[in-house]
Write a structure and sequence with these properties.
InterPro entries: AP1AR. By secondary structure, the chain is mainly alpha-helical. It is built from three helices and four strands; from the N terminus they run αααββββ. The protein is elongated, with a radius of gyration of 41 Å.
Length: about 140
């Protein structure tokens, strides 16, 4: 023992070392997975917050640019904005019209079931006509 010069603390700690059991190894792996998962969750939350800030900034920039363009358009040609608004209104009306017309005027083979004679209070038949959008007359 005289040739052995290792300190007593090293000899006792080396002897105290043992192999890790499968259960302990599984626990360590689970802790490591949980730590990695928690880190990734924090990274994801930070990235989502940054993306939301970028979206808001872009939306603000776009709104600002549209406002500036509208102001420039009004200054240079006030009628152009009115025409633009009318054009947008017309597009919306045309988009909406076919679906609305389907509910008002269902397609049927024979329209005679939807037409009827209108009588006056004197039992005289009234012949009514409607103007179409094209300017022609549509008999009822």
């Amino acid at each position: 023992m005289q040739g052995d010069i290792t300190p007593l603390s090293l000899r006792t700690s080396w002897r105290a070392m043992r192999a890790i059991s499968e259960e302990e190894l599984g626990h360590l792996r689970a802790q490591q997975y949980t730590a990695i998962s928690d880190k990734q969750t924090l990274i994801d939350e930070r990235l989502q917050a940054e993306q939301q800030e970028q979206r808001e900034k872009i939306d603000t920039d776009i709104s600002s640019q549209r406002g500036h363009q509208n102001a420039m358009m009004v200054e240079s040609n006030p009628g152009a904005q009115l025409q633009s608004m009318k054009g947008q209104e017309e597009v919306m009306r045309n988009r909406r019209l076919p679906s609305d017309m389907a509910t008002v005027m269902p397609k049927v083979e024979n329209n005679s079931e939807f037409t009827s004679q209108t009588s006056s209070t004197n039992n005289e038949d009234l012949d009514l006509e409607w103007d179409s959008e094209d300017g022609g007359r549509l008999p009822l």
